[in-house]
Amino acid sequence: MNPTEEKDKILQYPEELSIPKKNKRNTALLTLLSLLLVSALLLACSEIFSDEPDTTPLPPPETEVETPTEPEVEEEPYTLLPVVKDEDSGKYAFRSAWMASVRNLDFPKKQGMTLDELKRAFERNLDLYELYRMNAVILQVRPSGDALYSSELNPPSIYVTGDVTKGLPTDILAYAVDAAHERGMEFHAWFNPFRVTVDKMPDLTTEEILETLSETNYARLHPEKVLRFDDRLFLNPGDPEVRTFVIESIMEVVRNYDIDAVHLDDYFYPYRSSRENEEGAMVPYFFGEDGEDEKTFEAHKGDFTDIKEWRRNNTYEFMKELSHRVHDQKPYVKVGLSPFGIWGHSEETDGLGSDTPTDSSETYHHSVFLDSRKLVKENLVDYIVPQIYWTFEESAAPFGTLARWWNDVAEGTKVDLYIGHANYKLYENIENPNWAMGSVLTDQMAYTNTLKNVRGSVFFRLGYLVENSGEFSGTGQENLKKNNEHIKTHFSQMAVVPVNRNLPETIPEEPKEVTLKNDVLTFQDGYEGFEEKDKTRYFMVYQFPKGDQNTENPAYLFKKIPVSPGTKTYSLNHLDTENYTYGVSAFTRLHAESSVVVPDILDQ
Fold it and tell me: What are phi and psi of 416, to 5 degrees?
């Protein structure tokens, strides 16, 4: 026998040993009889030794039952306030101004600036946005076939370099996007789609003009795809290869940068101009009168017989493809468009257009050829900013008439409508009494606040919001100052960018580890996933008066705190907990808001 078998045998009972099983019923009976016998003996003893008989009945035997105990629930040291939106509260409004790079209007202010100068200048512009409590930046990143970013398709912008042979001192767009996000603002990359040159060059041939451009400029490389009108050059929207190139230029930015929106201005086909006729009088001059794109029409017309209808289809197909491409690449990036304020005249469009005189400019029939109304009705853009650059009193294009028309166009769509205001005319048109009033733009905004579908305002342009920059003087400067003060008052409270109904729904997660102790509010980001659209972009701290926790009152928006990479715990100190109650919520990049976490005040 091996050792293992020997060990197993030792641990076994001997085969001849018989161990009887217990009879449970007999055991219980014996136990009961023993208890009765003991009880009887005790009773007998008590009677023997007692002076008086005890007549107190014996209590019945009790069966002990174990009562389950409820687990103690620890109260959470905070309250969750659900946010029930009231879009009429004033809490939700898009606010921005165009920051133009063309001609060095707003940024950069001059060519050839150093890296440090560029950064300081951009930060000062962000200060200006913050001063007016704006929540989005619109920077022109491709002003005329060039780029303020690292591009394999477009050359560095001369408005930065000052020399078509030089490169950018830094990737300006990368810096600008990060800087805007660090202040809790959206960043909209503004593209001019087809423009090649800005200024008239009547004394130069087209070939000579192209030679002034960078050797890598698409227009110079492909002169056959360039059209000339009013002594300016632009890429031919009727050429499918041109449309593809412009879309690829935009998609390069969408892929490589964390922008919040693609923003296009209204340079598609050219606006009308004027020229001298044979009698020496100045008369309107429209693109196409000299057959500028007839050859393109013959080559690409397909089934179209009307060249104007074909042009409108070219711009429609361009915008349709761009919209699909952007949303396929990044569903959370918006596509915005800023068209001329008059789409078309009612008299010329079977009543569809605005009630404006037919001798006013428009963009449907005679120039630009952009059917912005159709784009809105088909939800091919996420927001639209018509440039309504006139006052209420101007008969050629009354502000109120056009604002109402655009409001009606947006009705029933998912497109956000913002209004473009001409604050530059407060200075440039100072001789016009309609522009020489201190509340011109705030009167316009007060009016649009009564329109159901208007959700924000944009000013052209940023530079006119700082009247003491040294660029302005005289009566116009005083007019700017008065209006700017009114705008600041009008924007005295913070506003949140409205949730866009054309983009995917996002799911915010409320902040976690929220505490309030020693007048210091601390919290952490509650989102732990990886879905870009659901990530927290910023937090909002509310300051509620005692007894009033209305999350829709914009007066209670106290502090916006952007998410900072690498920061785990956020804090806000010196709070007035004696007079106010504080809460904090989280917003996604598409501005969906979580519940507001209102922490209990911990002992000091």
Answer: -80, 135
Terminal Cα-to-Cα distance of the chain (whole angstroms): 77
* Cβ burial, residue 554 (10 Å; 0-12/13-18/19+): middle
Q: Does residue 381 sit in helix, strand or coil? A: coil
Tell whether omega for the bond before 108 is within 30 degrees of 0, i.e. cis: yes
What is the Cα–Cα distance from 325 to 249, expressed in whole angstroms?
A: 12
Task: List the single range of 170-174, 336-340, 436-440, 599-603 with lowest mean pLDDT.
Answer: 599-603
In angstroms, rounded to a whole number, what is the distance separating the alpha carbons of residues 356 and 405? Answer: 11
Q: CATH 3.20.20.80 occupies which residues in the chain? A: 94-271+286-490
In tens, the pLDDT along 295-354 reads 999 999 999 999 999 999 999 999 999 999 999 999 999 999 999 999 999 999 999 999
Contacts of 38 (CB under 8 A, 6+ apart): none
Domain 504-599: give its CATH code. Answer: 2.60.40.10
Q: For 198, phi and psi rounded to 5 degrees?
A: -100, -45
Model confidence pLDDT, tens digit, residues 81-97: 999 999 999 999 999 99
Domain at 94-271+286-490: CATH code: 3.20.20.80
Give the pairing type, strands 520-524 and 512-517: antiparallel
